[in-house]
Design goal:
138 residues; Multidrug-efflux Transporter Regulator, Chain: A, Domain 2; 5% strand; three-stranded antiparallel beta sheet; mainly alpha
């Protein structure tokens, strides 16, 4: 059994992160000492590493909770997990599309401006942004 500090070191997270995961029902201590200290087992360390790996893949804590629930549900199958992954992939693709649109818009603004010593009240980028705001308010 490990204390919260030891588990944090083993899993590469902070004790505050562990407390948060516990609050979000992603992990739970295996037991508590008479003094009320949380004690975790090897399964908790594996679960925390699973959470961190899933986060690196873009899964939110809500997604991870769903994956962990599926893992413990007897009636769940690999297709259920695959569906969650596909849904995540589609959300990431949508975000990338939005970011690309934003990038193109900024490229257009940059092309309008040659930089230099022009005063900011004559800056084409600021003017374009200001004009867009004025048009949106109409």
């Amino acid at each position: 059994m490990y204390t919260i500090g030891k588990v944090a070191v083993l899993a590469g997270v902070s004790p505050d992160t562990l407390r948060y995961y516990e609050k979000e029902n992603l992990i739970k201590p295996a037991s508590k000492t008479d003094a009320g200290y949380r004690l975790y087992d090897d399964e908790a360390v594996r679960r925390i590493r699973f959470i961190k790996t899933a986060q690196h893949c873009g899964f939110t804590l809500s997604d991870i909770h769903e994956l962990l629930t599926l893992k413990q549900t007897d009636s769940a199958c690999c297709e259920d997990v695959r569906s969650v992954a596909i849904e995540k992939k589609l959300r990431i693709a949508h975000k990338l599309q939005v970011l690309q649109t934003m990038s193109h818009a900024i490229d257009e603004l940059i092309e309008r401006c040659t930089g230099g010593e022009t005063a900011t009240d004559e800056c084409p980028i600021l003017a374009a942004l200001e004009n867009s705001l004025a048009e949106a308010a109409r």
